[in-house]
Amino acid sequence: xxxxxxxxxxxxxxxxxxxxxxxxxxxxxxxxxxxxxxxxxxxxxxxxxxxxxxxxxxxxxxxxxxxxxxxxxxxxxxxxxxxxxxxxxxxxxxx
Length: 95
Known about the structure:
95 residues; mainly alpha; Arc Repressor Mutant, subunit A; 0% strand; HTH psq-type domain-containing protein; DNA binding; Homeodomain-like_sf
């Protein structure tokens, strides 16, 4: 007899964003423990711990080659060159 597949996605995250925010504010402001706040608001303890220590948010994708400031300067330069009708791609790709 084959196993019956049961979706797990419907059982996850049964709390709302408001509950999560109020639980986190309770932990930060009132000094309630993460475990106690998890029980009170019905949110898993690990979720609250992860959100509490969220100083280092995970980024998707690889690291960037240029910094944000350098990339913005490069974008502005390309836009200025296009305004004066200097097409950089045509110059680079000349046969």
